[in-house]
Amino acid sequence: MTTRRKNMTAAVALIVGLAHGFVAWAAEPEAEKTLAPAQAVSTTDKWPTPIQVQQSEEPAQLTGLSRVPKFGFVSNFGETDGVVGEHVMRVNFGSPAARLGLETGDAIVAVNGRRLTSPESWYQLIDRAMEHDGWVTLKIRDARTGTMAYRTANLFRLNVR
Fold first, then answer.
1. Burial environment of residue 37 by CB neighbours within 10 A (0 to 12, 13 to 18, 19 or more)
2. CATH number of the domain to which 147 belongs
């Protein structure tokens, strides 16, 4: 396996860990010679760098990662077929999002009656709901029928940790 492929494999393992609410930091190569089961390894040309992965109750503060709690779906903000919103790219089987009825292709167009106009508006509306009682009403464009549906949920009860 080439060094580039090893680095890519380690990066994917790190991203998967971060997606499940884990926090990672790099340690010096000499810091540990053996790795615990909850560690991934990023390989460089000379030394493997242990990447320690630890469960945290604190939200990740990393640039480019969603500040929205993990509900078991992947989305991307944009416009598709004239619909502006968070477009659902994938829903994890058995996740809170699946139980809520979200499906791949659906688009979340509003939260608590406020239209999504940017990725920042999505974050702000979810953050605002989390600061209060956690209840949200999502306006969702159903990908199969093209109709709008409303789903109400409590974010505190849905959050996957």
1. exposed
2. 2.30.42.10
